[in-house]
């Protein structure tokens, strides 16, 4: 049985494990002051073209979103998120649990547009009886595999600025977005156009870890206190530092995401060729073919994947996720198993 | 200029002020242990037919909703509310600020139905990645003047029980609901069918104050601690006690609400007679006629009321609110001012 | 039985009730925008000599402390308070409940001194593993009746500035402090030397209400949102406005506190004359004589007051509190009842 | 330069890294449902003699303490902790940040005794104006290296039960406590005598991770929601599972702690032999010798350790910490460097 359910079913890329082994008995300062964390931050600052950025490594995406967003908001301020946004659907009320409301936006493709933001701002003017929109949360790649284009991100950033809103990007699948064939954004763009964003490690070959970036170090200069207070400061910070140092050495981060995307595109192409339709188009590592129920059932004898949405009585859209670790041989086998 | 904007533009019913004057120099125990608070609770327990209920007087509706709901929920549990519910639209994220998510339900008439609840429960099964629905928040009368019927409340209560959900009723305009011509519920029913509810004073003749009722005293027996901690315990609790003692002496609570409703119905009838249509039908103290813009403008030279919603380029639905203090003579004058 | 237990056993000063009666049927805008609240703020701004101050009327002292302090602090920042401070001993963890730690300081007289602050700052340098002291909370008069002198407050304010700390004064008994025979501070001084403070109404003749003042309006310009969110915004804000308008008309606020203090001093003098000692010296409205247990018992047949602290097997320090409403005739009677 | 500053300067025990390597490409279910987490929980349940315990692996000690304690408390309930307790001194207000007060207890040896608890309970009876003590937090080994004896823990547990208090043990250095020469407690005792406790991995050879144990699974059956909500649920839970599976295979957990303790005892013995005194006696992996300042300075040219407390002008107590990874050869060298 091969798992196409998610992109975190394996451990870490071997280069990361090797580095951990090689440096295991070096004594390092704790709590993120180790030399690997320092070097990893330096590498990321170079990659994003921002020598002044504040960077923090955090174990999980939920913790990253929660801390980054809550530190940027007062209690009467709210986050705008797509209805399909991770903080809205799959983080068990993490944002609310620290005191802030999420204002969800209905979208067709997981992406927020300036007009959505303006509409929400207009609906929240009855001060002080309503929350004040203050931050826009976007994901790239989105939860359904779509990506933001440069023109869109520029427009969004401008709209945020005009409306006194902060822009935050969840990059759990940042690598997949960057390596999409139709992508025209770079990490430098993210750093220039958002207030804060994170580069996801867990879903791109790390054992754990997300790299949170405040593009302006003055945004929340005392974030280290918050990290410690909310249990996000690892005594052995070297563990996180090594993940990102390796990922940002010799373009490993990009290569891993590129592999995941290529495997997905190969699968997508195969479904298309065999005449299947798709619930959603995606150029990243998620594919959403619509399958007759019996096809889905047959494929699932050897492959596990998610039933995403019932389309009609006979058909179901499924989600197939590939990763940095998906062997091409398995993909080829799977493709052969897809009936015409 | 007469204000039809809300039902809290005046002070208190004179009987309440008189009682305050008469008892002003009596020395009373503080923090809700005064004899007026004790007597008022006794009167309410009798009125709701529940001698064991725990009752607390709280200065504002937002504070009441916030404390009552947050004490009933763990941080991963969520409230189901109509999209038009007061906690969702006009309390500045009060519920979220203490850590819980609200799950909004689209409704046409401000009322939640069992099928809404079931749908939400089905959409929240991916434990532990999603919040757990745990409490249903309803308002009666609703924010748009509609009321729950007995059959509806019974069905809702049953659905809550089946789905392990608590039922909480916001009674900011409870009097108006109870005195509606088509109402078939009593305070005894509220006490029997909900887990907790509040009887609103502020919008029915009190200077301030809402009476929060836990129908089973074991629901949150240490609520007094929470009251004090969140600044809701008045040193001079007599102030709140006297409001409710007077309101529940000689049926004053019902009479005041009845007057407000009658004034509203008179206005509604007048609009109807003169050929106007309504955005919403309501049998309580809010009327929502659709007015040509120039009519609205004319009326607003002497009367203030809210523009509720644009209907088309030429017409606007407005909201006219009456209260316990609205003089019938003013209503008659207003009616005369409505053009045919 | 006469109650000397606290200073909130009666209702309100008759002038306040009269004003409420006189204006009861005027229609006023809700939520603090009424003309009485506006006028009361104007009167207070004049009294404190600060035309730009932001002022908010809040129902209780706990709510005032909680909202004012929490809005000034980030979650890793802490409040320094005397161990006897109200937020530390009698507010059920209100500050912590909104997320901040209190660092208590042992004092002999309820007053914090610069050396206390400096010591605490030195003990909190292991960033980010410890909280960051950020605000100093003082009460004037203190919970045990002592007051700050001008020289002390100047020194404290300077120490706060040097250490990047905010200074907040709880003025639940501000009137009593200002009218103490040895007082040399004015409300103008409070406004000049603190960042925020409140003028207590509840313990000085109001039915309810504290006037929170941010001396610099830029300190937290969106405080109105917070008020609404935490249930502190009264629909009938006129109730609070009238309290303070009357208190700050014709020096009523000062006269009421002066009366309370005089009654206390009379009692204190009587105990002294009859040879009793005191646990604490106080020039405000609290007296702490040390009584043989049988004297305490005898007095308590007709007067109720608090046993404050056991001194030895035979003696107890008690607390006698007077108020704006304490009749001089009762005080004279009480004095006669004190045995030699 | 060798670091004696803490017990988390190295990576992980090689057996753990090896297991990670060996299993790296196995596809595992995410979020703690992997086979290693399941096996590790099974091993721990056996070790603690409690087949029904609920066990959760959490990345850091602060996160563990914070989530475990906050889920057990309502907002008006407080934690009793030694003044030297980790939650009180080194977690940046983590407990308060989620809403609860800590009541600190002055101790001489870091250990809480029944009389401390009883005193605090007596000081918190003025309901509802004070917080309600509800949980006792202890650490074993304590922050200063002392350990609880069986008789003490039994007495503490009984006192808690009598006073309706929960007992929670922070076991960041549980291994060091268990392997102390004077220890008479077992993990089974901890499970029998506390409500919840954690077995620390980070300070005993794991890369990261603490094993939180609710001895009665009904204590907080929905803790998984909280884990996810507060960002504590690792997508690759296998990482945590493997740490604990290895630690509880072939007694590795005990052996590592035993080694750390033996190294510390060797150092302690050396200081004693050479005539030095100690600030604190400890039988675990921390040693607190009192050194003339020039000795401290000399030793610190090759060894790093913490200055713990000034004793007088010429002498300082220092803290030397050993770990599972401290080589005996380094210890021998260090001992030779200690002057007579």
Q: What would you note in describing this structure?
A:
- The structure is a homotetramer of 340-residue chains.
- Chain A has 340 residues and is of the alpha/beta class.
- Chain A folds into 2 domains: 91 residues, Aspartate Aminotransferase, domain 1, CATH 3.90.1150; 237 residues, Aspartate Aminotransferase, domain 2, CATH 3.40.640.
- In chain A, the strands form 3 sheets. In chain A, strands 2-8-7-6-5-3-4 form a 7-stranded mixed β-sheet, sandwiched between helices. In chain A, strands 9-10-13-12 form a 4-stranded antiparallel β-sheet.
- In chain A, strand 5, helix 7 and strand 6 form a beta-alpha-beta unit.
- Chain A is globular.
Task: Give the SSE layout.
Four copies of one chain form a homotetramer.
Chain A: E1 2-3, H1 14-22, H2 35-47, E2 54-58, H3 61-72, E3 77-82, H4 86-89, H5 94-97, E4 102-105, H6 114-122, E5 132-139, H7 150-162, E6 166-170, H8 174-178, H9 187-193, E7 196-200, E8 210-214, H10 223-229, H11 238-247, H12 252-273, E9 277-280, E10 286-292, H13 293-299, E11 303-304, E12 306-310, E13 315-321, H14 328-337
Parallel strand pairs in A: 1-11, 3-4, 3-5, 5-6, 6-7
Antiparallel strand pairs in A: 2-8, 7-8, 9-10, 10-13, 12-13
Helix pairs in contact in A: 1-11, 2-11, 12-14
Cofactor (chains A, B, C, D): pyridoxal 5'-phosphate
Organism (chains A, B, C, D): Sphingobacterium psychroaquaticum
Domain Aromatic amino acid beta-eliminating lyase/threonine aldolase (chains A, B, C, D): 13-225
